[in-house]
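Q: I'm writing a short methods note and want an example of a predicted protein-small molecule complex. Could you take the sequence and the SMILES for zinc ion and return the bound structure as tokens? Please keep the output block clean; save any remarks for afterwards.
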Amino acid sequence: MLEIIVPALWTLFTVYIVWYCTSAKHYAPITSTEAKMLWVLHRNGVRCNAKRWREVRRIGKIIGFECECGHKHIQKRPIVSSAPALQIDAKNPMLAKLGSSKKASFERD
Ligand SMILES: [Zn+2]
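A: Understood, no commentary inside the block.
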């Protein structure tokens, strides 16, 4: 009996891990400005003539928008995702300066 249950549990566990790492998503909070920008993109993208929209909130945070036409956008992000790396362009002195000042502020903390 154990010879059947143990491989089945490992298979289930493996499937769960693969799903969690590739498909599982959670709501990503966005700002009001971002929600409005996404709504404008929706209007321009599908030539929607709606004049009103509303923010979709969850636990006090904006997670998307709902258009007057019925379109609803919810911002989601994979649970397992790496944060975007800060890349400093060495050719641009302003960006390089920004990067070094950020580094300095990290060192102070
Ligand atoms: Zn619309």
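A: Remarks, as requested: The beta strands are 25-27, 53-58, 61-67, 72-74, 76-78. Residues 42, 48, 50, 67, 69, 71 surround zinc ion (CB under 6 Å).
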